[in-house]
Amino acid sequence: MSASDFTNARWRKSTRSNGAGACVEVAYTEDAVGIRDSKQLGQGPNLVLSHSTWRSFVRLVMSSETIQTPLLEV
C-alpha cells in the first residue's frame, strides 16, 4: 500500500486511552486508515492500513472478550 497523505486528517484518540500518555490515535482518509502513537506528537511513524484490513482488525478485537495470547510478537 502506498503512503497516504494524513496532513489534514482529523486524528481521534482511542476512548480506551488511560490519560497517562499511552494513547493510540486513528485517522481516516479516502483510501486508508492511519494509526499512530499520540506521544510522538505527529512526528513518529504511522501504521497505514486499507479500510478492509482496518475493519477486519476491529472485528477481531471486538469479537475477543479477552485475548489469551499476544496478537503480535515484538
Question: Which features characterize this protein?
Answer:
1 helix; single chain; alpha+beta; 74 residues; 18% helix; 4-stranded antiparallel β-sheet
Task: Tell me what you see in this structure.
The chain has 74 residues and is of the alpha+beta class. The chain has a domain at 12-60. The chain is 18% helix and 20% strand. The protein is built from 1 helix and 4 strands, in the order ββββα. It has one helix at 51-63; strands at residues 12-13, 24-28, 33-37, 47-49. It has a 4-stranded antiparallel beta sheet with strand order 1-2-3-4. The longest helix is centred in the last third of the chain and has 13 residues, at 51-63. It is flat, with a radius of gyration of 13 Å. The two termini are 22 Å apart. The model has no long low-confidence stretch (mean pLDDT 78). InterPro entries: DUF397. Residues 9-60 form the DUF397 domain.
What's a quick, concise take on this entry?
This protein has 74 residues and is an alpha+beta fold.
Secondary structure: number of strands? 4
| CA gyration radius, whole angstroms | 13 Å
Characterize the biggest β-sheet.
4 strands, antiparallel
The helix content is 10-25%
Number of helices: 1
Major beta sheet, strand line-up: 1-2-3-4
Structural class: alpha+beta
Give the H and E element order: EEEEH
Pfam families: DUF397
Domain DUF397: 9-60
InterPro entries: DUF397
Task: Give the helices and strands, then pairings.
Layout (H helix, E strand, L loop, with lengths): L11 E2 L10 E5 L4 E5 L9 E3 L1 H13 L11
Antiparallel strand pairs: 1-2, 2-3, 3-4
